[in-house]
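Project standup — Tuesday

K.O.: blocked on the structure for the chain from last sprint. Re-posting the sequence here as requested.
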Amino acid sequence: MRPPSAAAAPGRSPRGARARQPFGRYLPVAAGAGAEPGDQPVLAALFAWQRALVKAADTSLLPNERTLAELDALEAEATLDVLTGGWFSKRRRGK
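H.V.: unblocked you, prediction finished:
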C-alpha cells in the first residue's frame, strides 16, 4: 500500500494539500510573519470572534448587550475573511 502522499496521480497534488493551499497562501502574512511576537492579526481576530459568540449567547446579559456582541462577532468574521482572502467565510458556509 502506498502512503497517502504518493496516492495522487503524477503531476497532481494529493487531495488534502490542494484543500489547504488557499488558506496556506495567506497564513504567513495574516499570522504576522516577520512581525513582533504577539502581533498576530488572524489569531487576535479569531479569539475576538469566539469571545463575541460566547457573549452573544449569554442569556444573563441585557438584549442590547447581546446585540452589540453579535455585531462584534460579525466584525471579527469580516476581519477574518479579509485576512484569509475569503477562506474564512467559505469555510463557515461549508464550501
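K.O.: great, moving the ticket to review. The radius of gyration is 18 Å. The CA atoms of residues 45 and 80 lie 6 Å apart.
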